[in-house]
């Protein structure tokens, strides 16, 4: 999916902020404990918080220690082969643990569960549960079955499930920023992408439950929400209980969330270039708390390759979209996803990608070489004909260019001041804060003598930069 990529990171950070922690060490409170590890996109991390909520409702407590766990879950990603290999490696380690602790159950959740279905039980011996992204409500029953020695599998995809009524239990939160899932699935069928097969058809979550979740987070001290979906711009909610009501579009939803409170920052991810509307851009410009940052995956700069990818836009069309964003939101940060070495990609196509990256002046990009995924349109229709070394060489060129563009973009910010939401202490130095600007750039600055804390906004003047980070000093609070 096109989304904030957190690939290969685990949920292992739980900090302050939650009035109630699922990681309660009182041995009398929960009779059983689960451990959950997530891979892949932000949507998977968000889903793990739904799973945690369902499990907690059944009396399971969370633990960060696999040795304490009665249940181990791994929420998996299928987007590239490497993501699946990482999961397989981790499962091998869980298998060893299970041999030492036979009563323990191991469950595979998410996209790999959906893609491999019950094959998982044959391929990966000692996996007890296989549950696809739309079947988490059936977890309690499947766990009970698995406890009696049967294998539990549910990989049914749904056209309706949005887990709208389930309040996520925040697992990896800093108490300041949280994800809110606004839609599930994807109808786009980009030819390289496995997501439409693993996450099913697009459906939008009830707008009122989204706003309520944002309000609840704000009341609990959160200062930033990121609205998540594979393709947020095609959000379209029609209330089946009130069919005469007008549908709610993404632009309207953004406005509804922005109105929760002016000091709650609103972000969103991911936008498909073909779907982001002028209305969305105008809504962003109207509300100071809707961040000036758009993740707008290009994938390729060649119109020919874009057509093979089934992206439904051309190079010129994408350029016009960038122009429109720059016109309506001159301060907007823009980032991208790029794939190198897609089927039939020539050196000329590759040069088209590089030149369009230059044109777009991305602040940041997630960059990958093409990895054929079984069952996708590309796997069925086209030969994966670009040698791996060529894919990797082109990727290295794309990465080098992005590094230069990021550095240039950062250099332009030196001397300017930004409103920064403090997220916590800088990892390297406890005398410094780190936070982000509206444009999603990380800024590090000395605490100095200002009486502020994580969750506060400060005005920071940028004094210098590296390729990845802005450095500054507090100007005012
Ligand atoms: N190979 C390489 N990259 C891929 N992506 C999606 N599918 C593939 C694939 N088969 C990338 C796209 C997408 C991002 C989340 O992952 O760039 O936007
Ligand atoms: Fe994103 Fe396209 Fe995959 Fe949908 S099919 S998740 S739009 S890359």
Automatic annotation (TrEMBL):
Residues 172-408 form the Radical SAM core domain. [4Fe-4S] cluster 2 binds at residues 186, 190, 193. Its cofactor is [4Fe-4S] cluster. InterPro entries: Elp3/MiaA/NifB-like_rSAM, Methylthiotransferase, Methylthiotransferase_CS, Methylthiotransferase_N, Methylthiotransferase_N_sf, MiaB_methiolase, rSAM, rSAM_horseshoe. Its main location: cytoplasm. The keyword rRNA-binding does not apply. It comes from the Bacteria. Its EC number is 2.8.4.3. [4Fe-4S] cluster 1 binds at residues 41, 77, 111. It is found in: Cytoplasm. Residues 32-148 form the MTTase N-terminal domain. The keyword Iron applies. SUPFAM superfamilies: Radical SAM enzymes (SSF102114). Residues 411-476 form the TRAM domain. GO terms for cellular component: cytosol. Catalyzes the methylthiolation of N6-(dimethylallyl)adenosine (i(6)A), leading to the formation of 2-methylthio-N6-(dimethylallyl)adenosine (ms(2)i(6)A) at position 37 in tRNAs that read codons beginning with uridine. Belongs to the methylthiotransferase family. MiaB subfamily. This is tRNA-2-methylthio-N(6)-dimethylallyladenosine synthase.
């Amino acid at each position: 999916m096109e989304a904030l990529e957190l690939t290969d990171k685990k949920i292992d950070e739980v900090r302050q902020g939650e009035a109630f922690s699922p990681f309660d060490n009182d041995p009398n409170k929960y009779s059983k404990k689960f451990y959950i590890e997530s891979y892949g996109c932000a949507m998977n991390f968000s889903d793990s918080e739904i799973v945690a909520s369902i499990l907690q409702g059944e009396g399971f407590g969370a633990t960060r220690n696999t040795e304490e766990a009665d249940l181990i879950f791994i929420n998996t990603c299928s987007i590239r082969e490497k993501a699946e290999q990482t999961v397989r490696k981790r499962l091998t380690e869980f298998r060893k643990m299970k041999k030492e602790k036979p009563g323990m159950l191991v469950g595979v959740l998410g996209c790999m569960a959906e893609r491999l279905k019950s094959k998982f039980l044959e391929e990966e011996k000692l996996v007890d549960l296989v549950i696809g992204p739309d079947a988490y409500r059936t977890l309690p029953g499947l766990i009970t079955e698995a406890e009696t020695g049967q294998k539990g599998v549910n990989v049914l995809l749904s056209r309706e499930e949005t887990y709208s009524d389930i309040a996520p239990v925040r697992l990896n939160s800093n108490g300041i920023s949280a994800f809110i899932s606004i839609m599930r699935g994807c109808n786009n069928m980009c030819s390289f992408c496995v997501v439409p097969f693993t996450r099913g058809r697009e459906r939008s979550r009830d707008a009122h439950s989204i706003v309520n979740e944002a309000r609840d987070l704000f009341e609990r001290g959160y200062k930033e929400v990121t609205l998540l979906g594979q393709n947020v711009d095609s959000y379209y909610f029609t209330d089946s209980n009130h069919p005469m009501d007008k549908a709610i579009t993404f632009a309207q939803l953004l406005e509804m969330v922005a109105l929760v409170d002016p000091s709650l920052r609103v972000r969103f991810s991911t936008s498909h270039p073909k779907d982001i509307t002028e209305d969305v851009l105008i809504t962003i410009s109207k509300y100071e708390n809707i961040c000036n940052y758009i993740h707008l995956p290009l994938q390729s700069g060649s119109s020919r390759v874009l057509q093979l990818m089934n992206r439904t836009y051309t190079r010129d069309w994408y350029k016009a979209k960038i122009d429109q964003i720059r016109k309506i939101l001159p301060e907007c940060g823009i980032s991208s996803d790029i794939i190198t070495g897609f089927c039939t990609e020539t050196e000329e196509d590759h040069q088209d990608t590089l030149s369009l990256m230059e044109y777009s002046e991305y602040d940041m990009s997630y960059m990958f070489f093409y990895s054929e995924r079984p069952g996708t349109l590309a796997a069925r229709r086209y030969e994966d004909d670009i040698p791996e070394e060529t894919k990797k060489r082109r990727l290295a060129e794309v990465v080098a260019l992005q590094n230069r563009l990021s550095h240039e973009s950062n250099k332009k910010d030196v001397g300017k001041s930004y409103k920064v939401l403090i997220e916590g202490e800088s990892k390297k130095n406890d005398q410094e804060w780190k936070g982000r600007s509206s444009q999603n750039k990380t800024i590090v600055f000395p605490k100095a003598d200002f009486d502020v804390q994580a969750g506060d906004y400060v005005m920071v003047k940028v004094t210098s930069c590296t390729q990845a980070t802005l450095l500054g000093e507090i100007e005012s609070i």
